[in-house]
Write a structure and sequence with these properties.
CATH superfamily of the largest domain: Vaccinia Virus protein VP39
Helix content: 25-40%
Bound molecules: S-adenosyl-L-homocysteine
Largest sheet: 7 strands, mixed
Strand content: 25-35%
CATH topology of the largest domain: Rossmann fold
Strand order of the largest sheet: 15-14-13-16-17-19-18
Radius of gyration: 23 Å
Distance between the termini: 68 Å
Shape: globular
């Protein structure tokens, strides 16, 4: 039986021809063959020329998740297996991942697997599902991953917000039940460049640990010799511990989550504590309040790291998010010693690198500080950016020397 056919409106075939994996409902002229949500469909241009094949979901704004642009490639079990194996093979050849046992094996669209994230924490695999297409393929995906990396445990998670978009508001019970899994109650231990970290898979954020910042933690550590380091939005202290390993004299982690900070304390102990001349503090506070208080006092830092959560989730929030980034960076700069270092990030995909740089510039102007970009940072290599899907690039960071 041949798949149902989605015919595009005239002039709306460009993104599909350019292999963009998302097809929006607004580009569709008609759907023939009455596919059910979750079925495989062929996509043609408005004259009937075959363009691509994917999985349809008419409840969602992204009506088709495009999977192949090769006419003879069927979306069957072997298709999902091939995609999983290819994703794993790419990372096995990646020298940047040799020093860690915490790896993102699958990064959604960038690996041709929309809606699937697979993070491995020392053999404990966390799967995050955010599309109907990935949910449908879940049994095959789980088998393929099990065969390829033999995890000792698989934890499934749902991305509630995105799944709601997929299912027009309500995530069906079957999906919820398939994806709500009991994670290990005890944190799992991973290693990253000679350091050890506990990762809480039961209640942690994201899938448990910010793997995307892996290389950046090492970059930042290089500036920390003898420094007083403020690690704002510290989560479980990963930047802070790398800073200590890099010879920081003092590290202050600030986060609003007491639970994250409790792990930051345990992570310190796990790595042998501090040397005699070092100190390590964890402060539970709102970073904005904390920085304002700090600014009014005399204490200053040599390195300030700002790694806030996502401020903008969609384009409508860019303006408000820009103001928040600007305020944060302005106060952040004001507590840096002259000649010190600001490490500032944005993980909002809709705030691009050029805009982010402008925001940091405005912050510097308002703070009355001169800032020079000395390094540009991005997400780690197991979060690659497929060029036909530039939206995959979300993390950007600047290391600036602040006079
Ligand atoms: N740098 C961390 C990841 C930071 S994630 C790492 O490398 O592991 C963002 C963190 O900001 C979360 O831990 C969250 O608890 C915290 N957070 C969010 N809003 C905050 C606020 N207003 N003040 C303090 N912490 C906040």
């Amino acid at each position: 039986m041949s798949p149902a056919v989605v015919v595009l409106k005239s002039g709306r075939d460009r993104s599909v021809r350019q292999r963009h994996p998302r097809l929006f409902a607004s580009a569709i002229k008609e759907v023939s063959g009455r596919p059910k949500d979750g079925d495989v469909v062929d996509v043609t241009d408005n004259k009937g020329e075959w363009l691509a094949r994917g999985v349809i979901n008419q409840q969602a704004q992204i009506a088709v998740r495009l999977l192949t642009w090769q006419h003879d490639e069927a979306i069957d079990e072997t298709f999902w297996q091939r995609r999983v194996h290819a994703a794993i093979a790419r990372r096995k050849r990646d020298p940047a991942l040799a020093h860690t046992d915490a790896i993102r094996w699958v990064f959604g669209e960038s690996d041709g697997l929309p809606g699937l994230i697979a993070d491995d924490y020392a053999g404990c695999l966390v799967l995050e599902i955010s599309t109907l297409a990935a949910w449908r393929a879940l049994p095959v995906l789980v088998d393929a991953l099990s065969e390829a990396i033999a995890p000792r445990r698989i934890v499934r998670r749902m991305d509630e917000e995105r799944l709601q978009h997929e299912f027009g508001g309500m995530v069906p019970r079957a999906v919820r039940e398939a994806l709500c899994d009991e994670a290990p109650a005890e944190p799992v231990e991973i290693r990253e460049r000679g350091l050890r970290f506990l990762v809480n898979l039961a209640g942690g954020q994201k899938t448990g640990f910010y793997l995307d910042q892996r290389d950046n933690r090492a970059r930042v550590a290089a500036y920390c010799e003898g420094a007083a380091v403020l690690n704002a939005f510290s989560y479980t202290g990963a930047f802070g511990l790398h800073a200590l390993a890099g010879g920081a004299r003092r590290v202050v982690n600030v986060d609003s989550s007491g639970e994250a900070l409790a792990l930051a304390e345990r992570n310190l102990a796990l790595n042998g504590g501090v040397r005699a001349e070092q100190c390590y503090e964890c402060v539970e506070a709102d970073v904005f309040d904390y920085l304002r208080r700090l600014r009014n006092g005399d204490e200053r830092f040599d390195v300030v790291i700002l790694d806030p959560p996502k401020f903008a989730h969609h384009p409508g929030q860019i303006e408000r998010a820009s103001r928040a980034y600007k305020d944060l960076n302005r106060v952040g700069m004001s507590v840096i010693n002259p000649g010190g270092i600001l490490v500032t990030f944005s993980c909002s995909g809709v705030v691009d690198a050029a805009l982010f740089q402008k925001i940091v510039f405005s912050a510097a102007l308002e703070a009355g500080r001169e800032a020079r970009v000395i390094e540009r940072l991005t997400q780690a290599s197991d979060h690659p950016v497929l060029l036909s899907f530039p939206e995959a690039e979300y993390l950007k960071g600047l290391i600036c020397r602040i006079e």
